[in-house]
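for the writeup, i need someone to sanity check this before i put it in the appendix. the sequnce is what the collaborator sent (i think, or maybe the updated version? ugh). structure was predicted straight from it, no edits. if anything looks off just tell me and ill rerun, i have time this weekend
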Amino acid sequence: MIRNILMVALGGAVGSMLRYLLACIWPATGCNSIPISTLVANVVGCLSIGFVGTLLQRTLGGNEQLRLLLCVGFCGGLTTLSTLVNESSCMAHNSQLLMAAIYLGISVALGFLALHCGTWLASRF
């Protein structure tokens, strides 16, 4: 159990640091524009979990330690539903309802597409 917690913590730390670096590259500009860093983090996380999850299952028989490190920890630390909802709420509170809806729609659609692209890519290995 302790080893599992450490694997999740290590992966989560790396994923969270990457998300922070993305926010440094594309800082939020307030509630009047699409937050690129959150969108990129969530799409990359979906692509990664599709790819890594499928690859682990196919090549390593679903290695639990790697799954905890990469899928639960890293992808969980990189992606962020709470920030997505908070940013969308900020847009809505600033009378940017259409932008909030577009942001939510794009985020979910691209995340879904990225997950399936990752799965498809991993199935080619």
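DSSP finds five helices and no strands in the chain. The chain has one domain: 2-123.
thx in advance!!
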